[in-house]
Write a structure and sequence with these properties.
Blueprint: H1 2-27, H2 34-55, H3 59-62, H4 78-83, H5 94-107, H6 138-177, H7 184-203, E1 208-212, E2 223-226, H8 233-238, E3 244-248, H9 252-261, E4 268-270, H10 275-290, E5 297-299, E6 310-311, E7 325-332, H11 348-356, E8 362-367, H12 379-394, E9 397-398, H13 412-428, H14 431-436
Parallel strand pairs: 1-8, 2-5, 2-7, 3-4, 3-5, 6-9
Antiparallel strand pairs: 7-8
Helix pairs in contact: 1-7, 6-7, 6-9
Length: about 425
């Protein structure tokens, strides 16, 4: 009994603290300013740590070498690159040029870099952030140890409690609301459950979100498209408004949440590999946007998570169904924690735990003016125009590559294009004509 009494004495004030300072303010969308004070203390601490590192004389080893590049690339066209190696006809020495280009692509290609965590220019007292960190001083090491104790012994239990409550309320709440007949009351309750639970879950990461240009928030009957860094992108956006989501079917924890959410709101989940599913998704999306009373649809056209530095190719399917597109740019501040999900390396639970043991998740969200397809513009061109606008607004690098390369090999069409260019150059030099003579 003594053990039960002791546990009760510990749990009761803990739950009262969570309920009074976090859960209730989250449910009503009230900010008590605790996160702002916490971030100010963090900023001062990290500034002090940076100064100590620089004074330690190890600045060069801490800085991220990726900005310089592992190798020096030659970006000149094929004709110029081969001009110094060959004569007029095909020569065996041409092999050296293609071998060099192949090695450059393997060592440092634009795609692979976007699927690894973003390195920082200075250490933020998270060991996993920069592998180049070395011992600097006793004081800095003590601060790091203190940070580990705070993150794992204080913040992690608090955040885990909030995450458990938020996810449980979401699963139970959406399941119960889903039992009601379709009506305006059910829609209002569904919005309330989604908003409340997402706000609680964002607090589980010490999330601080800065929304810009709220006058451009997505409207009912429209399509909201955004760049994709992490599954919590959904939480980030849903704390400011509700959406009908479109995404791939997941298993595990994510699958449980998806199956519960779809009971109260017309979300659309699909199997990536099923062509039949894609046709059904397109049909359902067209029906959805035709009803201006329905929630805006949230789509991540990249189809996979990118590491918060770039925007990769937008799949054109989202831009073929018509309707108004509401672009949104999301940019995380890597100084406080890494939000990127490398799904090939970590499962969902591991990813969430990594964020919960970071200092905080801080991000900016920019709502952008709505865009529509122009006359004579095909879906791919429209997708590229929207992608460019998001990249510029979020300060991200725009890349033409398909994010699907994360899981698949390079398409044959890319290789064939280079082969055609080389063939045209050979024909231009007259080698084929000489053979025919």
């Amino acid at each position: 009994m003594e053990g039960a009494d002791l546990a009760g004495k510990i749990l009761y004030p803990w739950l009262m603290l969570v309920l009074g300072l976090i859960l209730l303010p989250s449910a009503f969308g009230v900010n008590l300013g605790i996160s702002e004070v916490y971030l100010k203390i963090l900023v001062k601490t990290l500034e002090w740590a940076t100064i100590r590192i620089e004074k330690g004389g190890r600045k060069e080893s801490i800085l991220n070498p990726a900005s310089v590049g592992i190798i020096e690339r030659d970006e000149s066209p094929m004709e110029k690159g081969l001009s110094g190696l060959r004569g007029r006809d095909f020569e065996l020495s041409d092999v050296f040029y293609f071998s060099k280009k192949g090695l450059e692509a393997i060592v440092e290609d634009e795609v692979t870099q976007r699927f690894s965590s973003e390195e920082l220019m200075s250490w933020n007292l998270l060991t996993r952030t920069n592998i180049n960190f070395h011992y600097i001083s006793v004081r800095l090491t003590l601060v790091w140890v203190l940070g580990v104790l705070v993150r794992y012994c204080v913040l992690l239990p608090l955040r885990f409690t909030l995450a458990f409550i938020g996810i449980s309320l979401l699963v139970v709440g959406t399941t119960l609301v889903g039992q009601l007949p379709a009506s305006s009351l059910r829609n209002r309750l569904s919005k309330l459950v989604h908003l409340t639970c997402c706000r609680i879950c964002v607090r589980a990461f010490s999330g601080t979100i800065h929304y810009h240009n709220k006058q451009y928030r997505p409207q009912n009957g429209g399509i909201c498209v955004a760049n994709h860094t992490s599954p919590i992108d959904v939480l980030i956006l849903t704390t400011d408004g509700c959406y009908a989501m479109v995404g791939q079917v997941h298993g595990g924890l994510m699958g449980i949440i998806q199956r519960a959410m779809v009971k109260s709101c017309p979300h659309v989940w699909f199997e990536r590999s099923e062509v039949k599913d894609r046709h059904l998704v397109t049909k359902r999306l067209k029906e959805h946007i035709a009803d201006k009373k329905k929630l805006p649809i949230l789509i991540f056209p990249e189809g996979t998570c990118i590491n918060n530095t770039s925007v990769m190719m937008f799949k054109k399917g989202s831009f073929e169904i018509g309707g108004t597109i509401h672009p949104v740019a999301i940019k995380y501040n890597p100084q406080f924690g890494d939000a990127f999900w490398n799904s090939c390396k970590y499962n969902m639970v591991s990813h969430l735990l990594r964020m919960m043991t970071s200092w905080a998740i801080v991000c900016d969200v920019w709502y952008m003016p709505p865009m529509t397809r122009e006359e004579g513009e095909d879906a791919a061109q429209f997708a590229n125009r929207v992608k460019s606008a998001i990249a510029i607004q979020g300060g991200l690098t725009e890349l033409p590559w398909d994010g699907g390369l994360k899981r698949a090999k390079v398409k044959d069409t890319f290789r064939e294009e280079q082969q055609k260019n080389y063939s045209k150059m050979i024909v231009g030099n007259g080698s084929l004509n000489s053979k025919s003579d």
